[in-house]
Amino acid sequence: MRAVIVLLLACASLAQPTLNTRDDYDFTLGNPSGWPAPLRRFFEAVGLEVVKARNAPDFPRPPQCDLSLATMPTAPTPLPGPGDGLTLVHVAVGRGTQNYTCADDTKNSKPAAIGALANLYNTSCTAALYPDVLALLPAAVLALPLPSHGDDGHGPFAPASFDLSGHHYFADATTPTFDMGTKQTYYGLIHCAKQANSSAPPDAPKGANGYGSVPWLKLSDKGASTGFKEVYRLNTAGGVAPPTCEGMSAHFEIEYAAEYWFWG
């Protein structure tokens, strides 16, 4: 049911006079040619799924949201599979920043990664029922404004009214953490260690700065976690820092988006 609602809301949003999106694009809905290509492709894919649903013999009965039907994208350098006995329990799209620091502002220094901060939005049923739509989502949401990191009425998230399902941050310099709970729902908490990584595909989005997309990852439980044992970061969009610190601040952020797949 939720996936159908998501798709219908996505199409319904096209009837609004404007999209709340970046100021450096023309997002007037009467002029879709002014939208960035990733956002256009997302809405085109949503429209195709709505047409298919309306033409289905059992319409308007909604399809069943069964996460066992969802299949993770394969990384360019394949990541290890989920551990024995684990099942997929949640899929989310993350939208936030990769954070960096520079020792100075010269070309002799290179940015050092110091973590990330992101909101995560529930896309579980989209993953199960509409994988082609989900694959387009990270690039599409990267064209939208950075959401607030709080939990005080800042969801659902455009472009298709996805509900907030949690937050991503670093508990310390080496511990990515996913606190997957809000005032309405609770899915789990996991403190992670990196287990494996793969470079993003060559055709992955380059991000606003043109430097590319952060790697795909497999993360595993570091202890004191509940509900989850492993997390995959897939279909990344943006987030890569410049190759040197020339002209950069001591601390800076690069916006990114990604799919996160939670196993427990």
Can you tell me about this structure?
By secondary structure, this protein is an alpha+beta fold. The protein has helices spanning 2-12, 37-55, 124-129, 131-141; strands at residues 88-101, 112-122, 164-172, 175-181, 186-198, 216-221, 230-238, 251-263. It has an eight-stranded antiparallel beta barrel with strand order 1-2-3-4-5-6-7-8. Helix 1 (2-12) crosses helix 2 and helix 2 (37-55) runs antiparallel to helix 4.
Helix vs. strand class = alpha+beta
Mean pLDDT across every amino acid position: 86
If you compute it from the alpha carbons, what radius of gyration comes out, rounded to the nearest whole angstrom? 18 Å
Helix and strand element order: HHEEHHEEEEEE
Q: What is the number of helical segments per DSSP (H or I, 4+ residues)?
A: 4
Instruction: Strand order, main sheet: write it out.
Output: 1-2-3-4-5-6-7-8
**Most strands sheet:** 8 strands, antiparallel, barrel
Shape annotation: globular
Oligomeric state as shown = single chain
% residues in beta strands = 25-35%
The CA-CA distance between the termini, in Å, is 23 Å
List low-confidence stretches: 1-29
Q: What is the helix content?
A: 10-25%
Keywords:
alpha+beta; eight-stranded antiparallel β-barrel; about 260 residues; about 20% helix
